[in-house]
Amino acid sequence: SGASVLLVDDSDFFRNMLKPVLTVAGHDVVAVSGAVAALKRMEEGQMFDLIISDIEMPEMNGFEFAQAVKTSDKWENIPLIALSALATERDINRGHEAGFDDYIAKFDKETLLRSLSQQLKIKGDAA
Q: Which parts of the chain sit beneath pLDDT 50?
């Protein structure tokens, strides 16, 4: 059985590209257009097995979103994967500091799926 995944990205293009990829891999995907919409779902008490978030977003960027998730009392244990067009070492380090468990270049679908499986396994082993 797949995982429930929250995909946070302000780009319709990327949501439309990634949602089918994740769905075909067997996951149940909820896609929202930004961090504010995602945090609203947290406030409403929705739970997910994993969160994938873009970094470059208006309103609240991915780093700020990760900090909000990791300091919350509802979602702090959910694995968080960053998706970014900017995957320099500095960005990746900043992502880890913000609370992301992994940091992946946007067009790298294979690595994203592999990371997702890994994070779910780590979470499952810890449970």
A: none
